[in-house]
Backbone:
């Protein structure tokens, strides 16, 4: 487990065994897997927008799912399994629509990632997180920290966007960020 998105960590360097907030390593791993799947959904949604394909449901869902991964919001691993399935369903539906408008598939390999729901989602989430963290060796530590900061910022924007949606205040241009 590696989580450093809140101020509750005792030493200021993140939680490694169990979250100070109460988040388990299992939930953390499935959240990491969900974020990985959302990273695969994003380029598909952007390409769909470019082809004037309606992405509204996927956009709102992405905001809801990112919001759920914020600290102290949701620690229900079954709910994250449901989010994973929904993310993949949105991704595949948009791919199908894109394939009708394009001659060839044009998306990154992350957009083909398919978790195995028969195997441990926790182990798959840990693998995804380790691959992300292992980039520290390839990227400078500053770049890695910047990537995490951007991710946390996107989570914040997503949470406000989802709250606005829930109360009937919506601006479609926010989803293009």
Residues:
């Amino acid at each position: 487990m590696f989580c450093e998105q809140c101020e509750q960590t005792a030493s200021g360097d993140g939680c490694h065994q169990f979250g100070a907030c109460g988040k388990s390593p299992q939930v953390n791993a499935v959240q990491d897997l969900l974020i990985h799947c959302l990273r695969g959904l994003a380029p598909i949604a952007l390409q769909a927008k470019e082809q004037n394909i309606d992405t509204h449901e996927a956009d709102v869902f992405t905001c809801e799912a990112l919001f759920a991964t914020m600290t102290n919001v949701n620690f229900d691993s079954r709910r994250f399994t449901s989010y994973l399935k929904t993310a993949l369903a949105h991704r595949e539906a948009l791919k199908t629509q894109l394939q009708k408008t394009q001659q060839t598939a044009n998306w990154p390999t992350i957009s083909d990632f398919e978790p195995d729901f028969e195997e441990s989602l926790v182990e798959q989430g840990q693998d995804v997180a380790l691959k992300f963290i292992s980039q520290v060796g390839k990227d400078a530590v500053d770049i890695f920290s910047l990537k995490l900061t951007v991710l946390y910022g996107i989570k914040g924007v997503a949470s406000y966007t989802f709250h606005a949606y829930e109360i009937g205040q919506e601006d479609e241009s926010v989803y293009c960020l």
User: Anything to note?
Assistant: The chain has one domain: 25-171. The helical segments are 25-50, 56-68, 77-101, 121-133, 135-138, 141-166.
